[in-house]
Automatic annotation (TrEMBL), chain A:
It holds the Pfam family BPD_transp_2. The chain crosses the membrane at residues 5-27, 33-50, 78-99, 106-123, 153-173, 204-222, 242-265, 277-299. Keywords: Cell membrane, Membrane, Transmembrane, Transmembrane helix. The keyword Glycosyltransferase does not apply. This is Branched-chain amino acid ABC transporter permease. It comes from Cytobacillus stercorigallinarum. It is found in: Cell membrane.
UniProtKB/TrEMBL annotation, chain B:
InterPro entries: AAA+_ATPase, ABC_AA/LPS_Transport, ABC_transporter-like_ATP-bd, ABC_transporter-like_CS, P-loop_NTPase. The keyword Transport applies. PROSITE patterns: ABC_TRANSPORTER_1 (PS00211), ABC_TRANSPORTER_2 (PS50893). This is ABC transporter ATP-binding protein. Pfam families: ABC_tran. Residues 4-245 form the ABC transporter domain. PANTHER family: CONSERVED COMPONENT OF ABC TRANSPORTER FOR NATURAL AMINO ACIDS (PTHR45772:SF9), CONSERVED COMPONENT OF ABC TRANSPORTER FOR NATURAL AMINO ACIDS-RELATED (PTHR45772). The lineage of its organism: Bacteria, Bacillati, Bacillota, Bacilli, Bacillales.
Length: 331, 251
């Protein structure tokens, strides 16, 4: 609990003071990063803690985005709009999750992809809401204390939701339900033998991730003011999966870092060369070859390695202790 | 009192008939050992009793309630525990975390999504008590994958005990152990209180006769005979099919 509060506090402070140090363009870019960070963290929950690799997580993101875009014609109340986005994606998660969690691995991947493709086809045929060309909405965020129009305002708004999502996920993974979910991923047979129903826990995680992705989708509209069926494309689903991988699978914060790296590379390297996906691809291959570790694991590795360098005496003594103990036991 | 009753149990994989009309009654407090040559269907029988595999036909009763149609995790709730032939633990977690996860299976708060798991003091206390009882308390912070094989086997049993079972299915508890480890382990199994019924699959005859007070011989998927250890020892037919004749005559 203390750790969760501490890391959330640190994150909050970072978000608060970050705009003081970075250029206005970076603030603008970070707004997008924060939205994708929420999205990637939600996928990170079911992938890294539940062992459910979903290629269709973008369906929930897209549904949230479409919900806000379409409903903004009728109301400007942000609480209602975001609430609706969460509700719609939650309902969709209940239906798809009920079917999808019966499968594992590749089959789970394919089923989630199938649902997304259905949405892709429906939205690209929806002439009334733009069809293939997409649909523009003009939405302004207003939480009851003034309209948020500046980039800085948007940054703080996304930052708030990002920190909130992080905190909730952090609580979840340390609470009993989260630990059971992780155990389920590691050894489902044993968890069943201990009296846990695997479907309950997988479903809970799937619903949490689904509604969080819906929220991210809803927030996304406040930045882009535009939705299109591309949100439901395989491309989108794969991109967010790559974010999770390069950030660090099996951690809460890793996917957020991955989202940062991804959006950053996409925007910066694309100004230098058109071949930016190549660099991203190489990075992805390197991370997959190194197995399971993303940027966050790399940071952890470097810090533990650094600590070892500063405390050489301890590591040298350790094997000697063991030898002595072994001799004692032998005698 | 009959605790576990298996009635006309059949299990086949397509044309392959593994278990044929198996009838076994296990009384409360019994140490019931199931023996039989390789391929006799012992582990399949366990999987059928526990619900890992669906039955082809037949009935299974636990304390009078029919349980063959309910999912495995509900059988655990009803008081049935099991261990696995191969170690089946959470290797990336510590001993303590394994046991806590196991104890939590019967707690109401297992669905809590906010309060951190280490803040439940009753869980910690119960875990400590169990580890002290089984002399694993010194190893509580060790990752399971770093434990010795014997310790992992013991943890298997601790995990199945921590769900408060009335009956435990032990699938070859001493498999892969050295003779010294085995005899130490048999002593530990004897420590399990009489209130918990044990059904054991075992190959090692010394272990069988030191633990069992009832033995069922499974041969080609049929329960040939259920009898006391003395009767099994004296039965000529059983000796021939299972022990290859006269194997136990030196006893």
């Amino acid at each position: 609990m203390k750790k969760a509060f501490l890391s959330t506090g640190l994150l909050l402070i970072t978000i608060l003071i970050l705009p003081l140090f970075i250029s206005p363009f970076l603030v603008y870019l970070s707004t997008e990063i924060l939205v994708f960070a929420i999205f990637a963290m939600s996928l990170g929950l079911i992938m890294g803690f539940g062992g459910m690799p979903s290629l269709g997580h973008c369906a929930l993101f897209g549904l949230g985005a479409y919900t806000v875009a379409i409903l903004s014609e009728y109301t400007a109340n942000i609480y209602l709009l975001l609430g609706a986005a969460i509700l719609i994606s939650l309902c969709f998660s209940i239906v798809t999750g009920y079917i999808a969690i019966r499968n594992k691995g590749v089959f789970f991947l394919m089923i989630t992809l199938a649902f997304t493709q259905v949405l892709f086809l429906i939205t690209s045929r929806m002439k009334f809401w733009g069809g293939n060309d997409g649909y523009s909405a003009s939405v302004t965020a207003n939480f009851g204390f003034g309209e948020i129009t500046s980039n800085m305002g948007l940054f703080y708004m996304m930052g708030f939701f990002f920190v909130l999502s992080y905190f909730l996920l952090k609580l979840f993974v340390n609470a009993p339900a989260g630990k059971v979910l992780k155990g389920m991923m590691e050894n489902e047979g044993r968890m069943i033998a201990l009296g846990y129903n695997p479907k309950t826990y997988k479903m809970i995680a799937y619903l949490i991730a689904g509604s969080m992705a819906g929220l991210a989708g809803g927030l996304y509209i406040y930045k882009t003011q535009f939705v299109s069926p591309a949100l439901f494309s395989v491309h989108m689903g794969a991109e967010v999966m790559i974010m999770v991988f390069i950030g660090g699978l099996g951690t809460v914060f890793g996917p957020a870092l991955g989202a940062g790296a991804f959006v950053f590379l996409q925007n910066y390297i694309s100004t230098m060369t058109d071949r930016w996906p190549l660099i991203l691809g190489l990075l992805f291959i390197a991370i997959v070859l190194l197995k399971r570790g993303g940027i966050l694991h790399l940071i952890q590795f470097v810090t533990t390695f650094g600590l070892k360098l500063f405390k050489p005496s301890r590591s040298r003594n350790a094997p000697v202790d063991k030898q002595v103990k072994g001799k004692e036991q032998a005698s | 009192m009959t605790l576990l009753k298996i009635e006309d149990l059949n299990k086949s994989f397509k044309a392959l008939h593994i278990l044929k009309d198996v009838n076994i009654e296990i009384k409360k407090g019994e140490r019931h050992v199931i023996i039989g040559p390789n391929g006799a269907g012992k582990t399949t029988l366990f999987n059928c009793i526990y619900g890992t595999l669906p039955l082809s036909s037949g009935k299974v009763y636990l304390a009078g309630d029919r349980i063959d149609h309910i999912p495995s995790f509900k059988r655990t709730e009803k008081g049935m525990g099991r261990t696995f032939q191969k170690n089946n633990l959470f290797e990336e977690l510590t001993v303590e975390e394994n046991v806590r996860l196991a104890i939590m299976g019967k707690k109401k708060y297992r669905l809590n999504m906010i309060k951190p798991m280490q803040n439940y003091t009753d869980l910690a206390a119960e875990c400590r008590r169990l580890l002290e009882e089984w002399e694993m308390i010194d190893r509580r912070a060790v990752l399971v994958k770093e434990l010795s094989y014997g310790e992992q086997r013991l943890l298997e049993i601790i995990l199945s005990l921590s769900t408060n079972p009335e009956i435990i299915l032990l699938d070859e508890p001493t498999s892969g152990m050295s003779p010294t480890e085995t005899s130490r382990f048999v002593k530990l199994i004897k420590k399990i209180p009489e209130s918990i019924t044990l059904v054991i699959i075992e190959h090692d005859m010394e272990v069988v006769f030191s633990l069992a007070n009832k033995i069922t011989v499974l041969h080609h998927g049929t329960a040939m005979m259920t009898a006391s250890p003395e009767e099994i020892r004296g039965n000529q037919m059983i000796q021939e099919i299972y022990f290859g004749g006269g194997a136990l005559s030196h006893d």
